[in-house]
Write a structure and sequence with these properties.
Elements (H helix, E strand, L loop, with lengths): L16 H4 L60 E11 L5 E5 L11 E10 L7 E6 L2 E7 L8 E8 L4 H4 L3 E7 L11 E10 L9 E4 L4 E2 L5 E8 L2 E2 L29 E6 L2 E6 L30 E4 L4 H4 L5 E8 L8 E2 L2 E7 L7 E9 L3 E7 L3 E20 L2 E20 L4 E17 L5 E17 L4 E18 L2 E19 L10 E12 L3 E9 L2 E7 L2
Antiparallel strand pairs: 1-8, 2-7, 3-6, 3-8, 4-5, 4-7, 9-18, 10-16, 11-15, 11-18, 12-17, 13-14, 13-16, 19-21, 20-21, 21-22, 22-23, 23-24, 24-25, 25-26, 26-27, 27-28, 28-29
């Protein structure tokens, strides 16, 4: 048979692999569940409390545990709170929900924390879908959905959206969409509700302004002294850019080609000048790698809460402060010309100098290294493409603020390496890949200079094999890691270390009716966050859709 395409289905393009294929032996096990911990992002209310010893079936049935992640709970402080409903809709097509947001009463207009909660439920058969939520044109959530059981599932996502407080202080238009297709085969209607909870108390330090682009341009207040752009970059919507990390150069005999191969880089430009570079996160959606059984309970990192790429554009603030609109362009390096598949919405966060109406300054340095990108194809009984990519950028600029001249320098270095192996017919297909994104931001003003160094590392190591008996097996490990260190005068003042690791082994029989797939899967996630202010460590394990372990070690 032809090899199943390793991809998922998002934004309305029907891809046969993630719904019609079927699984073979992955290890089955029974484990006792440790003491439960509070609800985390992506966990239905009460899910963690339900964790207990459970009998594990020999294979998947018509129902399984509701989706759950090991990520920390968002929660709120012990303070009075107010809740506002942003959207409530049943998505069955591509008609957006539209409404009006009104600020809460009784909690003031300066909050200690604002938490977004999305609750959803779906049953029957449905692909994974991509969605967004906008308030006043500002994107506050990008998310995807789990694939349901015939009996139905419920899930939730929590997100700290305090940084968007400026947006929430006035009445705004609301738009939400999770594009969906419902017909006689794909019956799952996505029933969702989004709310904001505002907590009173000591106001959090937040940006003074949150701006959306207007026709691709940005106009900031003339006293801006810090500018951060965030881009919710997602490769999605079907086609090869949905799993861009597996694409190959044109010379290689593979089902998804992309000119020079899989190297991708998200770039932002100001008035045509390169201002920031970043690695995109290699998100795996819940139908990905030809095997939805991998994701029924534990999704891949970031799949339910797509975090934006961030760029510190403060070196360009002197230019922005002339009061005129400036062109902002975001693009993805490596996408074949004319090919779609990336969504790149932009928010801009601005902090203002309260003591000056106009803050002048200038860009003093902009140095970009040559972008290195090579993919080498080696034919054989096992075809292979080896890819290496690297790029660096340094920008610097000063501002004459009310507290003196401040020089901000941003340096970023990106690197990617991958080895993609597959056999003829693509019945065996594997990838081992690493992405690193190193950034240093130094702020040198009247006081001691302060530097924040961030090292992001993303990893993917897996293979899908289709045997002669039509058993498809996927074994996959995903890693999302980051270290952050803040220092002043050569001394570390704060630090954090994050490691979110997912592992899965799932198999089923393809080309048979659903009740003959004999699907099995063992999946796990360990989320660790340590630092000068944090200690969090949670492990989840599932077998055949049953949550068999939920352990907290901090």
């Amino acid at each position: 048979m032809s090899r199943p395409v390793i991809m998922s289905m998002l934004a309305g393009v029907i891809l046969v692999a993630s719904a019609l294929l079927g699984a073979g032996p992955a290890p089955a096990a029974t484990a006792s569940v440790a003491s439960p911990v509070p609800v985390a992002s992506g966990v239905p209310v009460g899910a963690a409390a339900e964790a207990r010893s459970a009998d594990v079936p020999a294979e998947f049935g018509s129902d399984w545990h509701d989706p759950v992640t090991a990520a920390p709970p968002v929660g709120g402080p012990a303070a009075p709170s107010c809740e506002v409903t942003l959207a409530e809709a049943r998505f069955r097509d591509f008609t957006p929900y539209t409404g009006t947001y009104t600020p809460p009463t009784g909690c003031g207009d300066r909050w200690s924390k604002v938490v977004l909660r999305l609750e959803g439920k779906v049953e029957g058969r449905q692909f994974d879908r991509l969605g967004y939520l906008h308030v006043g044109g500002v994107e506050i959530l990008r998310t995807s959905t789990p694939e349901p059981s015939p009996d139905g599932i419920a899930w939730s996502v929590e997100k700290d959206v305090t940084r968007y407080s400026d947006t929430f202080r006035r009445s705004r238009d609301v738009e939400m969409l999770i594009g969906n297709v419902v017909d006689d085969t794909y019956t799952g209607v996505l029933d969702v509700k989004a709310t904001l909870t505002f907590y009173a108390g000591r106001p959090a330090a937040t940006p003074d302004r949150v701006l959306a682009l207007q026709d691709g341009t940005l106009t900031t207040p003339r006293n801006s002294e810090r500018v951060i752009a965030e881009v919710y970059a997602t490769g999605s919507g079907g086609g090869c850019e949905e799993f861009w990390y597996l694409t190959v150069p044109d010379a290689a005999p593979y089902s998804c080609k992309a000119g020079n191969g899989p190297y991708r880089e998200v770039q932002i430009k100001v008035d045509g000048q390169l201002a920031g570079i970043a690695e995109p996160f290699p998100t795996v959606w819940t139908g990905g790698w030809s095997n939805p059984f991998l994701w029924y309970v534990i999704p891949g990192p970031r799949a339910f809460d797509v975090r934006p790429v961030e760029y510190d554009l403060t070196p360009f603030a002197g230019r922005f402060n002339d009061g005129r609109p400036h062109r902002i362009d975001v693009s993805v390096v490596g996408v074949p010309e004319g090919q779609t598949g990336w969504s790149l919405p932009v928010n801009v966060l601005v902090w203002q100098d309260a003591r000056r109406a106009h803050v002048s300054g200038a860009l003093t340095r902009a140095e970009a290294g040559a972008l290195a990108n090579s993919s080498t194809y080696t034919p054989g009984s096992e075809n292979r493409v080896d890819t290496k990519g690297r790029h660096r950028l340094t920008v610097a600029g000063y501002l004459d603020t009310s507290h003196g001249r401040v020089l901000t320098t941003v340096s970023r270095t990106l690197a990617h390496s991958s080895a993609h192996r597959w056999t003829d017919g693509e019945n065996t297909d594997g990838l081992e890949a690493t992405w690193t994104d190193d950034e240093a931001v130094t702020v040198d003003g009247p006081g001691p200079a302060a530097t924040t160094r961030t090292r992001r590392t993303y990893t993917m190591d897996g293979a899908t094999t289709l045997g002669a008996d039509d058993r498809l097996r996927t074994v996959l490990t995903l890693g999302d890691r980051a270290t952050v260190a803040e220092a002043s005068e050569g001394r570390r003042t704060a630090w954090s270390w994050l490691d979110d690791t997912y592992t899965g082994d799932a198999a089923y029989t393809v080309n048979v009716p659903r009740d003959q797939r004999h699907a099995v899967a063992t999946t796990s996630e360990r989320y660790r966050l340590y630092g000068s202010a944090d200690c969090y460590d949670r492990t989840l394990v599932t077998v055949q859709g049953v949550l068999t372990k939920d352990r907290a070690d901090c």
